[in-house]
Specification:
Arc Repressor Mutant, subunit A, Rna Polymerase Sigma Factor, Chain: A, about 0% strand, about 190 residues, elongated
Length: about 190
C-alpha cells in the first residue's frame, strides 16, 4: 500500500514510469475481473483501458485513502455495470423498434417476425466476433468489404473469408434450429396420420 501511495505521488508529479508500473501491476487482475463481469474479452479490455485513461486524467485530484487495487477494481466494476445496463437498454430499444417496425395490422405476422429477429440475434451471438463484426458492418452498416478491410487494417481476402464463414455458420445455425424445422414442415415428416 505504501508503494502504491508513492507511485500515485510520482504520477501526480508527471512520472510516466510510475503510471506504467501501476498499469503493469494491476492490469491482469483488472482484466480478469472485467471479463468475469461482462463475459466478453474485447469489452473487458475496453473497460480496463477506460479505467486507466480516466485514472490518468484525474491523477492530480486523486487522493488514495485505501487500497489502490480496491479503488481500481471498484472503477472496473462500476464501468462494467454501466456497460451491461447500456447493452440491456440498447437491446430493449432494438426489440421495441423491431416490434414497431413489424406493424400492428397483422399481430400474428408481427409475432413471427419478432421471433425470427430473436432467432437471428441468438445465432449471431454464437458465431466468432470477427465474423459477426464483418457481417454486421457489411449488411447493417452498408460498408463495402474494402472499407471494412481498410478500417480494420486487414487484407481484403481475410474480410471476405470472415464474411463467408460467418454467413455459412449462421445458415447452419438457423437451419438446425428446431423452430425452423417446425415452421418449414420438416419436423412432421414421416409421421402417419
Amino acid at each position: 500500500m505504501l508503494q502504491d501511495k508513492l507511485l500515485v505521488i510520482k504520477c501526480r508529479c508527471g512520472s510516466k514510469d510510475a503510471m506504467c508500473r501501476i498499469y503493469g501491476k494491476y492490469k491482469d487482475f483488472l482484466l480478469t475481473l472485467a471479463k468475469s463481469l461482462v463475459g466478453q474479452q474485447e469489452t473487458a479490455e475496453d473497460i480496463v483501458h477506460d479505467v486507466f485513461v480516466n485514472f490518468a486524467r484525474s491523477i492530480e485530484k486523486f487522493r488514495l485513502t485505501g487500497s489502490l487495487k480496491g479503488y481500481l477494481a471498484t472503477c472496473v466494476s462500476n464501468l462494467a455495470r454501466d456497460r451491461i445496463r447500456s447493452r440491456t437498454r440498447q437491446a430493449a430499444i432494438v426489440e421495441s423498434m423491431s416490434a414497431n417496425d413489424c406493424g400492428s395490422e397483422n399481430p400474428g405476422q408481427s409475432l413471427i417476425e419478432a421471433e425470427e429477429i430473436l432467432r437471428l440475434r441468438k445465432a449471431l451471438e454464437q458465431i466468432p466476433y470477427e465474423q459477426r463484426e464483418v457481417i454486421l458492418l457489411h449488411i447493417q452498416g452498408g460498408l463495402k468489404f474494402r472499407e471494412i478491410a481498410d478500417s480494420q487494417r486487414q487484407p481484403l481476402g481475410t474480410i471476405h473469408g470472415r464474411y463467408r464463414y460467418g454467413i455459412d455458420k449462421l445458415r447452419s445455425l438457423l437451419n438446425s434450429d428446431p423452430l425452423h424445422r417446425l415452421a418449414s414442415g420438416n419436423a412432421g415428416a414421416g409421421v402417419e396420420k
